[in-house]
Amino acid sequence: MNPQSNVLAIDDEQARTNIEAANMLAKQFEKTCKLMFSADGRSQYKTYKSIIKNNKRTTEACNFISDLTLEDLDSAIHRLDPNKSPGPDVIFGQMITHFGENAKKAYRAKHSTVDQLFYLSQSIINVIQEKPHRKTVAVFLDLSAAFDRVWRQKLIHIIHRTGIKGNALLWINDFLRGRKFSVRYNGARSKSHRLWAGVPQGSVLRPLLFLIYMNTIHPHIHSDTRIACYAYDIAIWYTHRDITTSQKALNVTLKNIAIWAKDLKLSINANKTNYCVFSTDRKHRSAFNLDIKINDSPIKRIEFPTYLGITMDPKLRFTRNIEYTANKALRRLSILRKPCGTTWESRPKTVKNAFFSIIRPLLEYAAPIWNPSSQSSKMDSIQHRASKIIIGAVSSKIKTRLDRNVAYPSRKQTQPCHHKIY
């Protein structure tokens, strides 16, 4: 969007009205989701048709007396015994437990991004503490529009291989196909377009189907290469004393990942993919310029990679992450000052709830990873400032008493809870 002329421009096209802009954005999204097929892709489509046809034959004899409602389905799922044999749909009660590898935690109950961050950072710290310590080279991959480029026929094939067959497979196939979309821009709505790829947005099944699709990456990883994977945020790393050995192993893995991505019609953005060398070796760390490639494109080296919202550094001291988080939280403190003014005169409870909604989550996100840092006192200082804003104090010498008046625990009190979990 050009702010001076208020004209939306994509490539060489320009839109001067809202309806033109909506149609242009819809065409752009359709172009992003469009997949190109070769002879192998057409062969895969024949396999998909065969799978659907065979499953229809096996389920023709199954007749339901009445329609199944969502309440009936929810009740049946809660009554499932994980140790029982499967029914006509051939879905075991234990199957959902075995969908993901240990390194695959996205969207699973009681697993968050912190699991993957802890797995990655602890692996690096363990190596750094060795004497003589080894060096870790980590590559952070960027997948472009991964959710919107899921090849549906391939997904059905993968689901069939996991053991989901019969009515369940046919239902998922009907759930995915025949979908359309439109774009709304400033109240104007575009024409409807056919959605040929991707998993439906806003549905409960969207993350689960995507995980099944992405979980096929693990057989393509080098035996000594580790992987942390949360949805489409992928980090792979290799540890060795000789950094050239790490380079060779990572290039082998990246070559396999490129083949895997091509087979699944996923696009790896080489420009946004980067690597970092984690080491305490000051003399040679600046000279670690490796020849690491993905799809024959060189990957750039950076000092401060960001993975799942946490900025890392070669020594894993997290100073840059704490500085960035503190600055972001300080900017949000101004939101607390507005309700406390003479115009709104909000009650302390309202301001306190706002603090817990927009600032405290910033201070506690992935705290088990960076909490031991000596600079974490910056976060405590921000909470102290927020306490003064909430109760209207001008100054206070005793921070603990001030936090007690606000009636919420300090960050030091919550640290033992974090470390018990991890």
What does the model show?
Pfam families: RVT_1 (PF00078). It comes from Caerostris extrusa. GO terms for molecular function: RNA-directed DNA polymerase activity. This is Probable RNA-directed DNA polymerase from transposon BS. The protein has a 5-stranded mixed beta sheet with strand order 9-10-3-12-15. It is globular and about 65 Å long. It has helices at 18-33, 39-59, 70-78, 113-128, 152-162, 166-176, 205-214, 243-263, 282-285, 319-337, 348-358, 360-364, 367-370, 377-391, 399-406, 411-421; strands at 8-10, 13-15, 135-141, 143-144, 180-181, 184-185, 188-189, 193-194, 226-230, 233-240, 267-268, 274-278, 293-294, 297-298, 300-301, 306-307, 310-311. The protein is α+β, with helices and mostly antiparallel strands and 422 residues long.
